[in-house]
From TrEMBL:
Regions annotated as coiled coil: none
PANTHER family the UniProt entry points to: NB-ARC DOMAIN DISEASE RESISTANCE PROTEIN, PLANT BROAD-SPECTRUM MILDEW RESISTANCE PROTEIN RPW8
The species this protein was found in: Stylosanthes scabra
Superkingdom in the source lineage: Eukaryota
Domain Disease resistance N-terminal: 6-91
NB-ARC domain boundaries: 160-334
Protein name per its UniProtKB record: Disease resistance protein RGA3
Length: 1144
């Protein structure tokens, strides 16, 4: 990418001269020589970029040129920074010793650079490169006029392939006799559409009906068992399990898959080195009946080793099918198909050799090319003659070299992400900004230019699998061949550092690094070889532990994402444009942050101890984005934030009464994205609130407002009226509002019409809500702590065809003691799409029939719903519910999952549960008076697969009715001390494969009657009963005690199918008795292949020191939080959870 970089350096040199910096630093002669050499080199770069494909010497010359250009760019940037200091710091003059030393150093380094580029220019002459008038592609405006990216509504030429695979999966799902793994391998060269085909199958309606679980894992080049298992858990649960050991991950996966019909896709497998390890995990527990695995690979050997049936060979597309695909992308549905272009297009398709990726890429390239010569240039491109590449790679190179220079660099930079990584669009654009790949253009802000660059790359098929959620957040992936192309372009300049990487051959040429392992495990000394390191990005998820190290100290860095906590070293990173601190232990940022004069993006993520920001932040005049996420301890902003005129994003502002801390600081800031305003009780009058000028911030999409509990009611009403937002909001949340009436703008459907998510939290005096039912896009609604509200919407509905809450899918109602109905006017159809409902302390509610309901969570006392947000609520004394409301019971008939919790007076489950033939999951917690489950209720739960019971202190019996649960696969019993026996009908539970027992003192008698139990996990036991040896179907057994288990019964010798035995918290006597060969109990366990005893953990000296250090930090932070905000702000948590984690 030397051409683009050199263009930037030449522009910076011109600015350098125009600003008279060459004279200031005494380097006029060197700048003149450099300018001449760079101009001569730049003239031949287009020829060199194309020749490097075939000539290695030219490629090495371009690499040397790129390395030198990076260093020269660093020097010019340093001069700019020092000049700004000289201008702003009145104590610093031209004759100050620091200035004199800097001038001397720059003079020396500029002379070295002049010599270096002189040598590069001399080498240029050896290659006989031709100077060209650089033919820059005209700005294609037509692509911007398309409404959206092309989506594949049909996969051409693969109907028979799909039919064969679906037939195989149907056979697997129906075959419940075979316990071996069924693996169907799909082999084909890169770009033939293996992944697209399998994704088509994966989402097929028949396939979704065949399997309980569908799991997708991209394996890629390294077959990493731990990472694959983690991906399986994430695919099923939606969250990172945060388990660091392979053993823990194995247990989690086996627990989830046991007894389930699942489809597992292992996409893009390159190696079988550790296939047997993964296979053993999937086999353990016998949980493979009806399961199937699809494997896609470019390696015939992988297909042969992993497959249990003949390999499905994916052939190239026929010329006819490939033409239809090309035509779809090149002409679209409405564009005229000119005869001469069709003829050329068909010739291009022949060169694509049946590769759908090649046809898609070139069709996308030509979509807005109207001239015949443009099509001919693609047909006659010299890249078709590169014999080392297949047709797909040739086509991708043609597509790449037809991009504008800036887009080439933007695309190539994506090599910093691992293969198959889901990339956040916003983060990528910020990294482009930091590295200078995009700049503002005319009236377009730099972020708009970045959006256009991303859109064009997407339109031209460089990006795929784009997902845009309801709140407009975009993520995407790259096809592995495009990723390989980006890697080949960047070469040694970009490095992904993970567990399989070695630093022994680390190149000085590296400019961009991403890390996929904890920073504490990375030897930063190896990076010192790099001559101009620009980016270090830690891509680990936030679940990983923070560290107490310093950030990497490489002065040339433009972008840094780190969890470091010792930040004094930041003062030397003066080139930084992007700083992302995540899970850092800092309590404030250091004052030296003011040294980062070029900083454009500052992102603080999950810095849980961060309580304030230094006033020096306002000295960062180029700061455009200050993003603060899940820093719940932050109680104070820097004063005079309005002075940071460039700010486009400020997602948290804490208002105060002191001068410089008021809402007027927001007046002139053109903010967009997300904004959370806390401390509104400190706003004295409506004119102060109006000074925030929210309605003028047209790019604002997500707004959250917070008051403390003791704010004045009348003042709150005036303040909220003055905080009218723009009409394009997608989400809105409000906490602690003490007014009785809502402002006029909250009654206007025109202002609220774009809302997708609404959170109204502890607005205790409100009597009416906005017209929520009339919001056409409202998908998520959370209302809590409003004691006087009777209706969710008390507007009238005139039209008979009108629907209320027509898009709502997820509804949470909590602590609403007087809520009676959703609508005052119930003549209209309502809630047609509602699938999830959570209700807590809403005793009077009456729901209509909810046709799409899948999940119900019902809580009686309000003490635990979704993490218990009642701690800080004045309405915590709201009337609870003694029983489950009838209208909820009546809506249970078609639901698939129910959670019932915190009904301390509930003595029996509603008889209506006996009619829930569709129910698959039932959870019951904290029902203290519940003594048994009636046989009639159990009899009707014929589809139940998972039953969880916890903290039901008086529960004595599950009743003989449990024998009717013939589909039950998983049973969890936790903290039910009186449940000591299970009914004799347990012998009818033929599908029950997994049981988990926790804090029940002993294993309940009768568990041994389960005929096919394969996995048992029992925690906090005082002893092991002798009858456990009767459970001969067991394949996996985990036990734990606090050192109370002293021996293993001799009956364990009967457990001939047991493959794994783990005992945690072992007493030393048990360890001695189980010693290999010589222990008294050794013969009882000698037949078990995998056996481990884990002693009770001992606290080390370092653990004690760390604990004391953490306690001291917490005490110090409490002293600093003098303004009274609770550290764990529940509204913050709620907003974060719904905004970031909710899958809509």
């Amino acid at each position: 990418m030397a051409e683009f970089l050199l263009q930037i350096v030449i522009e910076n040199l011109q600015t350098f001269v125009q600003n008279e910096l060459a004279t200031l630093w005494g380097v006029d002669s060197q700048i003149q020589e450099l300018s001449g050499n760079l101009a001569a080199i730049h003239a031949v770069l287009q020829d060199a970029e194309e020749k490097q494909i075939r000539e290695r010497a030219v490629k090495l010359w371009l690499q040397n040129l790129s390395d030198a250009a990076h260093v020269l760019d660093d020097i010019l940037d340093e001069c700019s920074i020092q000049s700004n200091r000289l201008h702003n710091d009145h104590c610093l003059t031209r004759f100050h010793p620091t200035t004199i030393m800097f001038r001397r150093d720059i003079g020396k380094r500029m002379k070295e650079m002049a010599d270096r580029f002189r040598h590069i220019d001399e080498e240029r002459r050896r290659f006989e490169l031709r100077a060209r008038v650089l033919e820059r592609q005209q700005e294609d405006e037509a692509w911007r006029q398309t409404c959206s990216g092309i989506t594949e509504q049909h996969i051409y030429g693969r109907d028979q392939d799909k039919e064969n695979i679906v037939e195989f999966l149907s056979w697997c799902a129906d075959d419940s006799s075979d316990e071996s793994l069924s693996v169907y391998p799909i082999f084909g060269m890169g770009g033939l559409g293996k992944t697209s085909l399998v994704r088509w199958v994966f989402n097929d309606k028949k396939v979704t009906e065949y399997f309980d679980l569908r799991i997708w894992v991209c394996v890629s080049t390294e077959f990493n068992t731990l990472r694959i298992l983690q991906s399986i858990v994430e695919s099923v649960t939606g969250h990172n399990p945060n388990l660091s050991t392979l053993e823990a991950m194995k247990n989690k996966v086996q627990e989830m898959l046991l007894g389930r019909k699942y489809l597992l896709v292992l996409d893009d497998v390159w190696s079988t080195e550790k296939w047997e390890d993964l296979k053993s995990v999937l086999l353990c527990g016998g949980g493979t009946k009806g399961a199937a695995i699809l494997v896609t690979t470019r390696d015939q050997n992988v297909a042969s080793v992993m497959g249990t049936c003949p390999t499905h060979h994916l052939s190239p597309l026929s010329e006819g099918d490939n033409w239809f695909l090309f035509k779809h992308h090149a002409f679209g549905s409405n564009k005229e198909e000119r005869e001469e272009l069709v003829a050329i297009g068909k010739e291009i398709v022949k060169k694509c050799a049946g590769s759908p990726l090649a046809s898609k890429a070139l069709g996308s390239l030509l979509r807005n090319k109207k001239e015949e010569i443009q099509w001919v240039n693609v047909l006659e491109s010299k890249f078709w003659d590169i014999l080392e590449d297949d047709a797909s790679v040739r086509a991708l190179k043609i597509s790449y070299f037809n991009l504008k220079l800036s887009l080439r660099q933007c695309f190539a930079f994506c090599a910093i992400f691992p293969e198959d990584f889901r990339i956040q669009k916003e983060q990528l654009i910020h990294l482009w900004m930091a590295n200078g790949f995009i700049k503002s253009k005319g009236k377009l802000e730099v972020e708009d230019v970045g959006n256009e660059a991303w859109e064009e790359l997407w339109q031209r098929s460089f990006f795929q699998e784009v997902e845009i959620d309801e709140l407009g957040r975009t993520t995407f992936k790259m096809h592995d061949l495009f990723h390989e192309l980006a890697q080949s372009i960047m070469g040694e300049e970009c490095r992904v550092y993970d567990d399989s990487s070695s630093l022994s051959n680390f190149s000085r040429r590296v400019h961009h690094i991403s890390c996929l392992k904890p920073e504490i495990e990375v030897n930063m000394d190896a990076f010192k070889k790099a001559e101009s390191l620009r980016s270090i990005i830690n891509l680990l998820p936030l679940d990983y532990e923070n560290n107490f190290r310093r950030p990497p100290q490489f002065n040339s860095l433009r972008a840094l994402r780190t969890g470091a906590s010792q930040l004094s070293a930041l003062k030397s990173l003066t080139h930084l444009r992007y700083l992302n601190l995540r899970r850092s232990c800092i309590t404030t940022l250091p004052e030296c942050i003011s040294s980062l004069q070029k900083l454009q993006i500052l992102k603080l993520e999950s810095c849980l101890h961060l309580s304030c920001l230094p006033k020096q932040i306002t000295e960062l005049k180029e700061l455009r984005h200050l993003l603060i996420e899940e820093c719940h301890s932050l109680v104070e902003m820097p004063p005079n934030m309005g002075e940071v005129k460039c700010l486009k994003t400020l997602n948290l502002f804490v208002a105060d009464r002191k001068a410089g801390y008021g809402l007027s600081e927001l007046r002139d800031l053109q903010l967009g994205g997300k904004l959370r305003i806390k401390g509104l009780e400190n706003v004295v009058n409506e004119s102060d609130a109006r000074d925030a000028n929210l309605s003028a911030k047209k790019n604002l999409e997500n707004l959250y407002l917070s008051w403390k509990w003791d704010s004045s009611s009348s003042n709150s009403e005036r303040i909220l009226e003055a905080l009218e937002p723009p009409s394009n909001l997608k989400s809105f949340g409000m906490k602690g509002y003490s007014g009785v009436r809502l402002p006029s703008w909250m009654q206007s459907t025109s202002i609220l019409s774009s809302l997708v998510m609404v959170i109204l939290y502890d607005c205790k005096n409100c009597e009416r809500l906005p017209p929520l039912g009339k919001l056409p896009h409202l998908t998520v609604l959370y209302v809590s702590g409003m004691k006087d509200v009777k209706y969710m919407d008390d507007e009238s509905y005139d039209g008979l065809d009108e629907k209320a809450f027509k898009s709502l899918k997820d509804l949470t109602l909590s602590k609403l003691p007087n809520l009676e109905r959703m609508l005052r006017d119930e003549r209209v159809e309502m809630l047609p799409l509602l699938s999830n409902i959570k209700v807590s302390c809403v005793p009077k509610i009456k729901f209509p029939v909810l046709p799409s309901l899948d999940y119900i969570e019902i809580e009686g006392t309000g003490s635990g719903l979704s993490g218990s947000e009642s701690d800080y609520s004045d309405s915590g004394s709201s009337e609870g519910m003694a029983s489950i409301p009838d209208s909820i019971v009546l809506n249970m008939h078609h639901v698939k999952a129910i959670r019932i919790t915190d009904f301390p007076k509930l003595k029996a489950l509603p008889e209506e549960l006996s009619c829930l033939s569709s129910l698959q999951e039932l959870e019951i917690y904290d029902c203290d008076e519940l003594e048994s489950f009636s046989e009639n209720v159990m009899q009707g739960l014929c589809s139940l697969r998972s039953l969880k019971i916890g903290s039901c202190k008086k529960l004595k019996s599950l009743s003989e009715g449990v024998g009717h649960l013939t589909c039950l696969e998983s049973l969890d019993i936790m903290n039910c001390p009186k449940l000591v026996t299970l009914p004799s009908s347990m012998n009818k539970l033929v599908s029950l494969h997994r049981v988990y027992i926790y804090a029940c003192d002993t294993l309940p008698e009768g568990l041994q009657r389960v005929p096919s139990l394969q996995s048992l996990d029992a925690r906090n036991l005082s002893s092991i009963p002798e009858w456990l040896g009767e459970m001969t179907s067991l394949q996996k057994l985990e036990l734990s005690s606090e050192g109370l288990i002293r021996s293993i019964p001799s009956s364990f010798r009967n457990l001939r199918n047991l493959r794994e035995l783990s005992i945690y918290g072992c007493h030393k006597d048990l360890q001695k008795r189980c010693k290999r060969l010589t222990g008294e109990d050794w013969q009882n366990i000698a037949h078990i292949p995998q056996f481990q005893l884990l002693p009770m953990p001992q606290e080390t000296f370092s653990d004690k020191i760390r604990s004391k250090w953490r306690s001291w930090q917490l005490r110090r932070d409490r002293r600093r939080r003098h303004r009274g905000f609770p550290r764990d702000d529940k509204f913050d948590y709620l907003v974060s959870r719904l905004f970031h984690w909710y899958k809509m």
